[in-house]
Design brief:
The complex is a heterodimer of chains A (about 325) and B (about 500). Helix content of chain A is about 75%, strand content about 0%. Chain A has 14 helices and four strands. Chain A has a two-stranded antiparallel sheet. In chain A, strands 2-3 form a two-stranded antiparallel ribbon. In chain A, α3 crosses α12 and α4 runs parallel beside α6. Chain B has three domains: about 220 residues, Rossmann fold, CATH 3.40.50.300; about 180 residues, P-loop containing nucleotide triphosphate hydrolases (Rossmann fold, 3-Layer(aba) Sandwich); about 80 residues, no CATH class. In chain B, β7, α6 and β8 form a beta-alpha-beta unit. In chain B, α5 packs parallel to α6 and α8 packs across α17. The radius of gyration of chain B is 25 Å and the shape is globular. Chain B starts with a strand and ends in a 9-residue tail after the last helix. The chains are: A mainly alpha (about 325), B alpha/beta (about 500). The interface between A and B is medium-sized, with 21 and 29 residues.
Amino acid sequence: MTELSLARGTVDRDRALRLLQDYGVYGGVVVLLLFNFVFTPHFASAENFRTQAVQVAPVLIVALGMALAIGTEGVDLSVGSVMALSTSLLSLYLGYGPWVATLIAVAGGVVSGAASGALVAFVGVQPIVATLSLMVAARGLALVLLPQLKDVHDPGLTALGSGDALGIPYLVLIAAALALLLAFVMRRSTFGRQLLAIGDSRPAARLSGLPVRRVLVVAYVCSGALAAIAGVLATARLTASDPTSLGTLMELSAITAVVVGGTPLGGGRVRVGGTVAGAVLIQLLTTTLIKHDLPPSWTQIAQAVVIVGAVYAARERGRR
Amino acid sequence: MLTVTGLCKTLPGVRALSEVDFTARAGEVHALVGENGAGKSTLIKVLTGVYQPDAGEMTHDGAPVRFATPSQAQQAGISTIYQEVNLVPLMSVARNLFLGREPRGRLGLIDFRRMHREAEETLRGLGIRVDVRRPLRELGVGAQQMIALARAVAVDARVLIMDEPTSSLEPREVRTLFGVIRTLRERGIAVVYVSHRMDELYEICDAVTVLRDGRVVHTGPLAELDRLRLVALMLGREIGEVRREGLTKFTGSRDTTAPPVLVAENLRVRQRLHDVSVSLRPGEVVGLGGLLGSGRSETAKAVAGALPVDGGRIVVAGEPVRGGSTAAAIRAGVSLLPEDRKTEGIVPGLSVRENIALAALPGLSRFGLVDDARVDRIVDTFMKRLRIKAAGPHQKVGELSGGNQQKVLLARWLALHPKVLLLDEPTRGIDVGAKAEVQALVDELADDGLAVLLISSDTEELIEGSDRVVVLKDGAVVRELTGDAVTEEELMRAIAAVPAGGHDD
């Protein structure tokens, strides 16, 4: 349909596409919310929102780190495995108390991120290959540390997973705080600006004397740390450590959230708000289809349609 | 053999070729020369079917032809050898040679024995000796290029176009290549040879066509054209032409007694630079002269730490600077405005503001957080001082005109308060008004005590803008023009000079 109007004015079309790319994801969220308010019974309840928010929190946190990696014109495939590594470390060191265990779990994520970052920045391995190797390695290490599912009984962690403050679950508060922190870092810090410049034009960044390698390593370290935090939170919510299945396919959900949120895969731009909305959009889409008793395969098809739509909008934008 | 007449081609924004006539004759090596943007590559692309001409006739073997795709041109017997070899590195030499037309045995399988035998025969016929069973990548670049040549000949090429074939070859490999080219010439193949190396042209070529600004300015036998005349034709300057004062925005020369702020000694980069030395005094504009590929940009990049050097020493204000690190060079006060503004200069997706502040960010932040007020002040200052025309500081740089992009880059470097500014083609591809502004600015900066290294293919700009000119040729300094010798004529003489006996190339 847009093809017909092409001859009339490309300016209008450009603007429409830009609006679609910039605000399309928020529009999608609003549309889905309205649809559900009208057609889905029991949707507009506090309990339902709570469930949705708690479910989306881990994906959201992982997607934030993914957005950084993608902003550098890279990608981090190891996030799901880092979540598994994190849950293994957490249950292994829980004897020292939940805080120490959490710190160790996050440190695991940092080390993993530093490893992929070093591979990318110093060795010059392509990000997809570097993080793929870490994806395999981290999952393997997680299973060595904790070969099978183990229940986690710790009052502190249980409180983290199911408690709330002022009616808002801790999980959601933490995810929101991290999103705000990242948005602040991207807006205000030298690191954020340098990351965008490196993602947009690496030769120009290098010639401008930017610490290209350091920024790349830090981006992957952040991604690893955020994935590890997501792993801890997921463990707390499930009250169990399951390194075999925790975080499987998480990298794909995270990439989906980032891409749907309007962050271009070519780097040079990180949209924190869009990423949050992207994660929420996918969550709502899944819920909507489930609540209307459509089989899970439909969910996947719907996700695919959303991804193609987002990529199409991004592509048009890039050709401008 | 292959003739084009009245060829015109317009690329977005430029008239790349206008009314070009060109003839490649059988058994002749025809040099195609011209500076950047003269239209050489466009002409080659039209000849090989990559571009379609807007107007003009093309005849091949006496019959009019029109190539819609590169493969059609190849089938008609026109082969191209690019600087980068495009073969399959992991396959054997013989397989590369016969790729797509392997001799088949009875079962439709490749007859390896026959293929190897025929490959050896083909290569021996050209005077190349290699083991055809070895994978191609084990050979040197030169040998690989030879295989590419052999392949082109083996597919019955009638016209062979070579685009700077020697740019990555060792002198010994160049000898072999020339041997092969001579063999091809004897076989009646028309060779089109693109190169900037004067010595090579005179050694191997029979005829020459000089392009400038998309037009043919000269065509004829090479032997009738002396070197100086050829250089003059390429650069578009007449020998003895009266210098028109004040055509560019540069003013006169300056005091040249102060101690140098930048000393670069014996810079060496394999196959690119051979012991290049340059020094700059504060307030001085030193030009780097020479033809395309003579090592001008490489020298600037080596000084700025953007090109790792194999040897040599760089000293800024008395302090030695570690080579190969742009960050170290920038800290020492050396800034480079790169030649390729679009890919190495601007960050297109970021705003004017972010682009200007980019390199200076560490100095404009506290505890890793950017001091936006200070950034705004600096951006505002430079946007006014350099008269950057943008919708505002938040407009994306990719949307600006070339001249304004260049000013943004200048602002990025000036915000660092450098001691030495290296300008690689600062006025290329920008409009006349912006060009004059940039030239005036360079002058002003030098007056303020900045040391400037100026690289420009625009001879007039180079001569009038520089206090001294260091002339490079094939990666080595051949002459330094000072004082009254800073003239276009002297520059051309220096470029055209026949190398002395012991030249390393």
